[in-house]
Amino acid sequence: MANHAIFDRPMDAPVPKGFEQAIFGMGCYWGVERLFWEQDGVWMTQVGFAGGTTENPSYREVCGGGTGHAEVVHIVYDPARISYEHLLKLFWENHDPTQGNRQGNDVGDQYRSVIMYYTDTQKAQAEASKTDYDNRLAVAGKKKITTEILPVDHFYPAQEIEHQQYLHKVPDGYCNMRGTGVEAAMPEGHELP
Questions:
Q1: I need a labelling partner for 71 at 20 to 30 A (CA). Which of 91, 94, 177, 185 fits?
Q2: Per annotation, catalytic residue among 28, 35, 145, 167
Q3: Does the annotation count 63 as an active-site position?
Q4: Taking the chain, what is the end-to-end CA distance rounded to the nearest angstrom?
């Protein structure tokens, strides 16, 4: 496996002791990966596929439909520097979680909104944040959230190495990330004075 273009460590490096993992699907994974690699406390990002039935699919197979996979970003982070709740806030605010199997012009089940949890704590935090953000969207006159919250089944890194850290390699490349303009809850301990 190649080295991460920003962090310069092997993308298949073992998760350091005390660090945690997260998986988010927010539409096209290129912009999503950049959002998370820019965060202080994130140690590794990798684009790939999860939530489907085909083993180790190619990008072409996923885009062709029928694999059931979503485009996702796998994140390894230091919870002493960035909390899972903070990652959830970034998740909710940086895409539109009400669109079902699409994000803007990107249409298909691979673009669906999904949170995949590793632990019961992550599941509880994700579900609580979804309820809270759904209420915030309703107050703003927006539609209901369609985001799936699922246990991690299997993460398949994108085989096409050019897709990893794509917007670092192609800074003017395609990015369709658009939020709703509605703020998510501030994580506990991060309240503004």
A1: 185
A2: 28
A3: no
A4: 44
